[in-house]
Amino acid sequence: GPAAPPPPPEAADPYVRVRGAREHNLRRVDVAIPRNTLAVFTGVSGSGKSSLAFGTLYAEAQRRYFESVAPYARRLIHQIGAPKVDEITGLPPAVALQQRRGTPGSRSTVGTVTTLSNLLRMLYSRAGTYPPGAERLDSDAFSANTAVGACPECHGLGRVHRVTESSMVPDPSLSIRDHAIAAWPGAWQGKNFRDVVQTLGYDIDRPWRELPQADRDFILFSDEQPVVTVHPVREAGRIQRPYQGTFSSARRYVMRAFSESRSAATRRRVQRYLESAVCPVCEGRRLRPEALAVTFAGHPIADLTRRPLADLPGILGPAAAPADGGDGGPEGTGEAAAALVEDLVARIEVLVGLGLGYLGMDRTAPTLSPGELQRLRLATQLRSGLFGVVYVLDEPSAGLHPADTEPLLDVLDRLRAEGNSLFVVEHDMDVVRRAGWVVDVGPGAGRYGGRVLYSGPVPGLRQVEDSATRAHLFGEGAAGPGPARTPRTPGRWLRLRGVTRHNLHDLSVDLPLGVVTAVTGVSGSGKSTLVDEVARAVTAGLHGDAEDPGDARDPGDGDGHRPDADAADDGGEFGEGGDDGGEPGGPGPVAEAVEGLDAVDRLVRVDQKPIGRTPRSNLATYTGLFDAVRAAFAATPEARARGYAPGRFSFNVAAGRCPTCQGEGFVAVELLFLPGTYAPCPTCHGARYNPETLEITYRGRTIADVLEMSVDEAAGFFTDVPAADRSLRTLQDVGLGYLGLGQPATELSGGEAQRIKLAAELQRARRGHTLYLLDEPTTGLHPADTALLMRQVQGLADAGNTVVLVEHDMAVVADADWVLDLGPGAGDAGGRIVAAGPPLDLVRTPVGRTAPYLARQLA
Ligand code: ADP
Ligand code: ADP
Ligand code: ZN
Ligand code: ZN
């Protein structure tokens, strides 16, 4: 059984002790975990690791914290509920770095998340070199997010929208009467404009290009608004009275329509005549001229925030050295600079060590992967000076090439050495091997799990026969997803030329069709960028235009796959996610597909974006499973007698749902410090439906009972509803049998969301010419689950489809037919294809940083 030494007096007890934990599927778990140790929580997905680490240990630490700082919050905490556990002793305050929650706002950047921006601004404020006579600026003046700092021309955006003659007059051979000024509105309003121009004495019948430049400039760009009396000429047989017409230049019209029109269609129409350009005042640097005039080490602040972090120590360090102190600042500046630079450089070096040196401080948070964000936060903790806390982490190795895992472990070690404890949910066996303690949860998922199979030093897990982790941890070589396959031989190819974006420059990419390709490389080498560009090129080829990259996204976002068809009254949540805030200036040129495009007739992107952003979506609504379930309820004799249609059983439709919470099951609770906290609805207690709806049962269960079921339970229940049964079985096939049907989308991890999308895709009829793009599908997966997933992936290729996956798990890479290894490094040091071929070829002629790890896997 679990190795829990008998408890000594609490103060001297080096263990966190949990008694009777019952959160979710945990079965009265007792466990003791030493403090000041790297402790990992392992087990198949759904076994209960997070329920123990986050749902119990972290939740309890957080509850105690709130009680201590805000006793009045007790009542609210009572509503939210404490974790279900008898007792926890020896628990330090906890900090959670969890991937699925707390994505920062779109104004956040690498600089703000890491607090590097504050330090850098302080450096410029206090120790920068100012032009002669200039006043010292406050550090806020170096932020484009403040009124005092933002460039007044572009309001800190760095770009402006503007019109040009060629954007508004695409065809200068036309006359004004023949609509040369395309930017003007159509119909009667356009005619007004033309009449006014004619009344003002301009020739509206000559081709535009023959008009004098001064006339053209006035008509297009003037800020004047002369008023004239227009005597309309007969047009199309209609007679009009004279009227007072006001002139408005084409620019004025476009800008006002763009910024003020209430009609989205009008805004969209005039946007076509706007060009987005770098702001001429700040040159894209987003700050006021006064702030940009201040330099440090010869650079304005904006030059440093856009560089890769890795460049900064080399620039800042020498400038702050005592010998070089004379940078024109007032007395004491040298010391202030030295201290700030020392702090900045130390923080940046941690980030560089974690393989994040390719990021720039101005990179916005929505463009970062969850793994990048978590590592940024982790590194920030290193300098926070906290000790005696427990950090609870969720798969910190996600998104990491094996070569990047070492530095991550070093950071975890340093946090521990500073006197902290680390509780880490992990699937990467290299991390598990380095841990001082392992808590293995299982043996299966959901109700087949929920027990602690082992808690102790790692080697002891070898003796635990029930453990699914054991074989993967100790059984070297046997860790692959199955017996070695003979790789498929590529036949046809998709060949792209001129792939250019981020760190990829005019790259040529040859992708084999009909096989499984793994794209590998260290973090920042360009894998996601490459896959995005493949998606764009294929989308452009499929639709004959490149303007709408939204088409290339996952099945939930576009193309009529709107799983909960009756979710009509809550405003299109499934339509979200098409626009993730991208970069200013648009997506840029699309690579040219020179071969193979005709062999792809559909593109499916299976990514880790949430399947919905409100608790109203869940896997049942997303996959369409719920449609079948509701139909089954509506077909019961009682429902038919009462005239309840399937819509009645949707919590998105007013007739059937609980009026208090409008079908959410929860109500928002206002709690200081804890935005977005929910408590169960006081009326329906989480059931979501009104009592009349709940009077209808299908085989003895209400619709609310069904939402409480796990996929596994439901699969045994709906065997006679074919559509539901098919959905449920595909969900089991991707290892999601443990998930609850009604578990809100907002509670699902990125990996779970991705597997739900994959299942939704798998339950459709198979066709042979689809290109599937998968972004690190093994995130959140225990090796045992990875094997399950790969069987599905191989099935797609067996049916003639093409699968491209970005992957770090060498067991998966070894199981692919073809490998594209990007690198050799990150950022500008990457972006090239260093090796391409079947996995064994990569190992035989090793180049690049992936080959050695792949060799170990294939040994
Ligand atoms: P792991 O971290 O090992 O993947 P979890 O602790 O997330 O597993 O899940 C354990 C069990 O608890 C699963 O059956 C899961 O469906 C269930 N569960 C997890 N979160 C919730 C939730 N918010 N509500 C209901 N059940 C949940
Ligand atoms: P990988 O997927 O291999 O981790 P990425 O494709 O995310 O690498 O990144 C490759 C390079 O492109 C890096 O230098 C990264 O900073 C840059 N990059 C990625 N996304 C963006 C973005 N949205 N804006 C600016 N630069 C980006
Ligand atoms: Zn500007
Ligand atoms: Zn309710």
Automatic annotation (TrEMBL):
<keyword id="KW-0479">Metal-binding</keyword>
<protein>
    <recommendedName>
        <fullName>UvrABC system protein A</fullName>
    </recommendedName>
</protein>
<keyword id="KW-0677">Repeat</keyword>
<dbReference type="InterPro" id="IPR041552">
    <property type="entry name" value="UvrA_DNA-bd"/>
</dbReference>
<keyword id="KW-0863">Zinc-finger</keyword>
<dbReference type="GO" id="GO:0016887">
    <property type="term" value="F:ATP hydrolysis activity"/>
</dbReference>
<dbReference type="GO" id="GO:0003677">
    <property type="term" value="F:DNA binding"/>
</dbReference>
<keyword id="KW-0067">ATP-binding</keyword>
<dbReference type="GO" id="GO:0005524">
    <property type="term" value="F:ATP binding"/>
</dbReference>
<feature type="compositionally biased region" description="Basic and acidic residues">
    <location>
        <begin position="544"/>
        <end position="565"/>
    </location>
</feature>
<dbReference type="InterPro" id="IPR003593">
    <property type="entry name" value="AAA+_ATPase"/>
</dbReference>
<keyword id="KW-0267">Excision nuclease</keyword>
<feature type="compositionally biased region" description="Acidic residues">
    <location>
        <begin position="566"/>
        <end position="582"/>
    </location>
</feature>
<keyword id="KW-0234">DNA repair</keyword>
<comment type="similarity">
    <text>Belongs to the ABC transporter superfamily. UvrA family.</text>
</comment>
<dbReference type="InterPro" id="IPR003439">
    <property type="entry name" value="ABC_transporter-like_ATP-bd"/>
</dbReference>
<keyword id="KW-0238">DNA-binding</keyword>
<keyword id="KW-0228">DNA excision</keyword>
<keyword id="KW-0227">DNA damage</keyword>
<keyword id="KW-0547">Nucleotide-binding</keyword>
<dbReference type="InterPro" id="IPR027417">
    <property type="entry name" value="P-loop_NTPase"/>
</dbReference>
<dbReference type="GO" id="GO:0005737">
    <property type="term" value="C:cytoplasm"/>
</dbReference>
<dbReference type="GO" id="GO:0006281">
    <property type="term" value="P:DNA repair"/>
</dbReference>
<dbReference type="GO" id="GO:0004518">
    <property type="term" value="F:nuclease activity"/>
</dbReference>
<keyword id="KW-0862">Zinc</keyword>
<feature type="region of interest" description="Disordered">
    <location>
        <begin position="540"/>
        <end position="592"/>
    </location>
</feature>
<dbReference type="GO" id="GO:0008270">
    <property type="term" value="F:zinc ion binding"/>
</dbReference>
<dbReference type="Pfam" id="PF17755">
    <property type="entry name" value="UvrA_DNA-bind"/>
</dbReference>
<feature type="domain" description="ABC transporter">
    <location>
        <begin position="494"/>
        <end position="849"/>
    </location>
</feature>
<dbReference type="InterPro" id="IPR017871">
    <property type="entry name" value="ABC_transporter-like_CS"/>
</dbReference>
<keyword id="KW-0963">Cytoplasm</keyword>
